[in-house]
Design a protein that fits this description.
It contains eight helices and two strands; from the N terminus they run H-E-E-H-H-H-H-H-H-H. By secondary structure, it is an all-alpha fold. It has a two-stranded antiparallel sheet with strand order 1-2. The N and C termini lie far apart (119 Å).
Length: 229
């Protein structure tokens, strides 16, 4: 009598074919999962807007991270802005000091107090930032001197001339209030212009945050001063 395979048993050939099929499937699944993991590790692509008139770029997640603000050292625009804004804020404090002495309107006096309270600590923040990045401005081993030498301040937007400051110092009463508001509105408009310009070039997170705050706070004060004139 010929022996027949018992139910549930398989011939050696069938078993071998089955093992090979399982092995091939395992290799294929391993390759697919490895590719998916690799793609997941890389992250989705990021579309970065181009400069005006230029097309957008498609960047990998790593490239996008490298270009993120705060990931790179500050550039020349950052250094020029922070150095110039110290001088710009400094002139605003000169005018607010005069207003606290000579303003006739309580509203103008309170405005001067708010400007002084906001810009005094901002100056300290900017000076500390400049100290942290002093080597970028001068180069290692140079005689660093004062940060006021970093930029030419005469052409900054909104700055009052020496003659205008002298007129303000001599003015009294309602004439002082009107001249103060006129000069300070222009001064604030200049600060907003400078902040908007650096936002288009900055590579530094601190500069971006400060410039954004300047635009928000000084735009609000411009509207307030327009109501007082």
């Amino acid at each position: 009598m010929t022996d027949r395979p018992r139910p549930g048993s398989r011939s050696p050939l069938v078993a071998l074919v089955t093992l090979v099929a399982v092995a091939l499937a395992t290799v294929a699944l391993s390759g697919c999962s490895g590719g998916a993991a690799s793609a997941a590790d890389e992250g989705p692509p990021v579309v970065a807007p181009g400069a005006p008139g230029e097309p957008a770029e498609t960047l990998s997640a790593d490239e996008a991270a490298e270009r993120a603000p705060g990931e790179r050292p500050p550039g020349p625009a950052d250094l020029t802005y922070m150095d110039g804004m110290v001088e710009h804020h400094g002139q605003a404090l000169v005018m607010t000091e005069l207003a606290l002495e000579h303003a006739e309107s309580d509203d103008v006096r309170r405005l001067a107090e708010r400007i002084e309270a906001a810009q005094t600590p901002e100056i300290e923040v900017m000076r500390a930032w400049l100290e942290r990045h002093d080597d970028l401005a001068h180069g290692p081993g140079e005689n660093h001197g004062e940060h006021g030498d970093h930029a030419e301040h005469g052409g900054m937007a909104g700055m009052a001339s020496a003659e205008e400051l002298a007129r303000l110092a001599d003015a009294r009463g309602a004439d002082f209030d009107q001249l103060f508001l006129t000069l300070m509105v222009r001064h604030h408009e200049g600060a907003v212009t400078m902040a908007a310009a650096v936002l288009g070039e900055t590579t530094d997170e601190d500069v971006e945050r400060l410039a954004t705050d300047v635009i928000a706070s000084q735009s609000s004060e411009i509207a307030r001063m327009a109501d007082l004139r």
